[in-house]
């Protein structure tokens, strides 16, 4: 059984990390840039959900621009209570503070297990470990949750239900921004039965943060992700080949496009490559809620967005279950899974 990262970080007198956590840095990697730090698009959800036709039309246009230029955006005025968001973060902290034996009750083995917790990404296959513990469970179409700590399940169910409403409204706006009917994506990807995954990440203080990584550069396998954190920075986004520190807005969601969005839009909206760093002083926690198609849905470019002469299909269609297994059982780096279904032009 792999030692949890929390256990390792709390080892008395720990001043260096084991070699298995030491990443070799790419000498050609661009330095962190502050060029785009304050320019990440912000979408006012209230105008999308209940604004006038003119306001909604403008927000749909802004949404499309954010999708095409960034692959991500911040969402404000979304209606999920700040108190619930804080309670969810605190409940996740209580989970990670459970005794290791209690957490082991929820240790799964397969990527499609409905509930699992562990360390790194895939402790059995990772050649270099990530400075991270995680909790994952399916929140839709069937809700699964750990039974501990007390009250966790109730908070998680409320949070999952409310964030789903936000995500589905965003999907309608994104669909319209592509020139499709509002309900097109939801229907085409059978999102009524869509897979919703709750992932909480725990990054404890690291004695050598310059050598370790919380998560590698990657894109999410789903359609889109709603992300929050506990106020400790560490999320970085790749933008025009440069890495950008993302400073979250209080009580806002960071919305990140995943692989299925790039596939479905035939490359018009690209997924966002991102990573997590660690620090030497504070524990960072994040909660990512991933929204994807139904597992048995075959996802390919929307026919309405394809023209065989001027805009041919850029991706091979694949069942979402197979795609998820492909991404989760291989080395996760960049857009590695997406590249496997990409159709290379001759």
Explained architecture:
Helices cover 29% and strands 20% of the residues. The strands form 3 sheets. It has an 8-stranded mixed beta sheet with strand order 2-3-11-8-13-6-5-4. Strands 1-10-9-12-7 form a 5-stranded mixed beta sheet, with no helix packed on it. The chain has a two-stranded antiparallel sheet with strand order 14-15. With 346 residues, it is of the alpha+beta class. The longest helix is centred in the middle third of the chain and has 26 residues, at 152-177. The protein has one domain: B-lactam Antibiotic, Isopenicillin N Synthase, Chain (Jelly Rolls), CATH 2.60.120.330. Residues 193-293 form the Fe2OG dioxygenase domain. Pfam families: 2OG-FeII_Oxy (PF03171), DIOX_N (PF14226).
